[in-house]
């Protein structure tokens, strides 16, 4: 049985998995994958640039 608290948490989780990169604001499938693996909402391009130029 799902109560109102669980429904609110499900809505927040769905908003986090929207595939939009926090850096470049573009939609990419790799954003959700990187969020699960590393905890950051970055696309592959931004992740590589952050790895090479960590500022």
Tag the structure with descriptive keywords.
55 residues, mainly alpha, 3 helices, 56% helix
Overview of the molecule:
There is one protein chain. By secondary structure, this protein is an all-alpha fold. It has one domain. It is 56% helix and 0% strand. The chain has helices at residues 4-16, 30-38, 44-52. The longest helix has 13 residues, at 4-16. The N and C termini lie far apart (46 Å). The model has no long low-confidence stretch (mean pLDDT 83).
Structure, briefly:
This protein has 55 residues and is an all-alpha fold. It has helices spanning 4-16, 30-38, 44-52. Helices cover 56% and strands 0% of the residues.
How many strand elements? 0
Mean pLDDT: 83
N→C terminal distance: 46 Å
Along the chain, the helix and strand elements come as HHH
Strand content: under 5%
Task: Give the C-alpha Rg.
Answer: 14 Å
Please identify the structural class as seen in this structure. Answer: mainly alpha
Shape: elongated
Oligomer: single chain
Q: Please estimate the helix content.
A: 55-70%
Q: Note the total helix count.
A: 3
Largest sheet: none
List low-pLDDT spans.
none
- Total domain modules: 1
């Amino acid at each position: 049985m799902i109560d109102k608290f669980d429904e609110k948490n499900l809505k927040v989780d769905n908003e986090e998995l929207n595939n939009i990169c926090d850096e470049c604001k573009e939609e990419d499938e790799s954003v959700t994958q990187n969020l699960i693996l590393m905890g950051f909402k970055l696309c592959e391009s931004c992740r590589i640039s952050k790895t090479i130029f960590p500022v």
